[in-house]
Amino acid sequence: MIFRARLLPCVDRLLPERLARSAGTTDAGCRMRTADFAAWLARRARAHAFHLCSIPFAELGG
């Protein structure tokens, strides 16, 4: 038996304001300044191995 949920559109009237405020904030944030992000990302890349295995679309299931 398959159940399909009917999704309704969500209108977020404050989204443009929140995105603008977020994009305009470069010197503060949850945990780091925007200027510190590149160095943080480089440290994370060195600390952890990341692997990607490509799968041809023809082999995907589901």
Structure summary:
With 62 residues, the protein is an all-alpha fold. It contains two helices and no strands.
Q: What percent of residues are in strands? A: under 5%
- List low-confidence stretches: none
- CA-to-CA gap between the ends? 16 Å
Q: Provide the succession of SSEs.
A: HH
Instruction: Summarize the amount of helix as a percent range.
Output: 25-40%
Sheet/helix structural class: mainly alpha
Q: What is the rounded Rg?
A: 20 Å
The count of β-strands is 0
Query: How large is the count of helical segments?
Result: 2
Per the principal axes of the C-alpha atoms, what is the gross shape?
A: flat
* Largest sheet descriptor: none
Mean pLDDT: 85
Description:
The protein is mostly helical. The chain has a domain of 32 residues. The longest helix has 11 residues. The radius of gyration is 20 Å and the shape is flat.
Summarize the SSE layout with pairings.
Elements: H1 15-24, H2 37-47
Summary tags:
mainly alpha; flat; single chain; 2 helices; 62 residues
